[in-house]
Give the backbone structure.
Amino acid sequence: MIIQTRNLTRDFDSLRAVDNLSLNIPEGEIYGFLGPNGSGKSTTIRMICGLLTPTSGEVEALGYTIPREAEKLKARLGYMTQKFSLYQELTVEENLQFLAAIQGVPRREQKARITELCGQFHLEKRRSQLAGTMSGGQKQRLALAAAIVHKPDLLILDEPTSAVDPESRREFWEYLFELAGKGMSILVSTHYMDEAERCHRLAIIRKGSLSAEGEPLKLMENLGARVLLAEGRAEEMIHWRRQLSADPLIPGCTQIGNRLRIMVASEVEEPEAWLTRSFPFLGDLERTRANLEDVFVRATHSEHMEEEQ
Amino acid sequence: MIRREKIQAMVYKELKQLRRDRLTAAMVFGIPVMQLLLFGFAINYNVRNIPAAWCDMAETEMSRSIIQDIGATRVLDLKYRASSVEEVQKLIRTGRVRAGVVITHDLEERLRDRRSAFQILTDGSSSVVTGAVQSLASLPLGIPGHTVDYKTQERLPIQVLPLYNPEQRTAVDVIPGLIGVILTMTLMLFTAIALVREREHGSMEMLITTPVSAMEIICGKLLPYIGIGMFQTVLIFLLGVLVFRLPVNGRVIDIAAAVLMFITSTLTLGLLISSFVKTQFQAVQLSIFILLPSILLSGFVFPYEGMPTFARALSKVLPVTHFIELMRGIVLRNARISEMPVQVFSLLIFILFSTILAWERMKKKRLD
Ligand SMILES: Nc1ncnc2c1ncn2[C@@H]1O[C@H](COP(=O)(O)OP(=O)(O)O)[C@@H](O)[C@H]1O
Ligand SMILES: [Mg+2]
């Protein structure tokens, strides 16, 4: 295990941002942290990095007890913050030089390392461009290059793609796979389903606590519900959704275009028949495979229920 | 177009924001109240209790009563008894006293010959002191019944001799203080926003996740500005000498050492501010809060000798007070830096104290 947390908890005054979180993150994989905004992803990551002191619970990363041995961890850790944190007034090259020196890359290796990184992340043409003038995708590439300038064993990225267009997001993930392929352990937080689906393993975080954990495929298989699609007109859809959601046997119901994606709990033996019987207004029903969004919706279902009541 | 509701909404929003920013809200009341009270009391042109020495070589009844009379005016605080004129001069040069009463053997003779009876040497590097002593010369001195009542002399019996800056040029008097104020004004802000800027921008989170130590961050933030401060000082001195004919009497090495210590103490004070505040705006406000007393209480604008005790005590915790003392001593009175240990140690303690405190705040390298 590269990271282990036990009953990790963090309060901000009366707010519990992370609640009894126990995680086992294996080595050499891309591990995803999926959760909506404010679910405590950044707070957890900061506690793992030793930047925030846990209210209670324990963290061990790369075998070091955090926060006591945080300084030892830092030498082997690459951390890409949620907000772009390189210097806008410096050029790409100057930023990388600064990070290389700060991270203790030997002086005579720095130049070669920077050239290598610029090549790897397609920044050669931008070496003397000011970081502040680059696009969102380019900035993230630079931030990633800077985070791994010292070849860390563990790379932690906090929502690296939240301010990036879909094309750049795809490209960014190619880079992550490349790094994972070289044996780097990666922890990445996201609120995008498609990204979460690409992780080797993932944890779904809801209100600071763990609501599901495992390989994405397994999570989808073990959804504990079946998914059906129903067609309808936009005006009726809203009413349908409201009625369906109120049923405790329907842990999730989402509108997608002019279709309704309905999850039916596995206690129901014949979901089609049961749906037609209980909600006669529904027309033809079609079975479909569960996706990660369904896993997510199911995991966060009770939260919505609580909030609506 | 000006619409009332829109302006009203803006005004309310601003006031609400202001109320949430505790430090700023405190400053809105704090700055005027504190500064007014402080300076209202501190600013006093009636200079009293100027530290002084006396040297009585006549040792007669007359000379003793003169010393007593002068002491009774409370303008001079006769702290040291010196045995020679040289000693008086040394005490003035090193800044221990600002004036010295010298009564020579031939006191009675001088009075008979209607020459000035005795001298008061003053520290001409502070025109306020010389001015105050000059006014002393016109005070009613003397006890009736003395054989020779020097009060009745037609010429003033007291000869006031400014030891430095004999022409009493204001520029010469003001420049050492001005150097201190200019450096405080420009340098403190550099470091005051140094850490908080990184924090606001988010790069602090990245920095503290690297193996860089808190002390390395502090040194990295100090050194460039020490260089800039030294450069500024050279510029000010050049202008002072070329344009204002500032006499530079002391050794350059002593001046450089004093400037270096002062710059460092000002920068570490800025860093200390930076380690406490949450926004750059607050850093600027706190800097101004410190800058005002640095100008007004350091002896630059208002005479130190005219301040009440608490204002003097306060001025002692400002590095610029000690720096101005050092500058007047070294540049104008040709003192060696080693002759002014109080100021030197004050600055060193200041540097040490604020560096350690700033480091304490940062060394854990945490966000909470
Ligand atoms: N420094 C802080 N002070 C107070 N509350 C905070 C602080 N940081 C985060 N929070 C709160 O903790 C919760 C979790 O935040 P965060 O970890 O940033 O979530 P995420 O990264 O998943 O969006 C949020 O409700 C947020 O408002
Ligand atoms: Mg976050």
Notes: The first strand of chain B starts at residue 50 and ends at 56. Chain B has 15 helices and five strands. Residues 214-244 of chain B form the longest helix (31 residues). The interface with chain A takes residues 201-203, 205-212, 365-368 of chain B (CB under 8 Å).
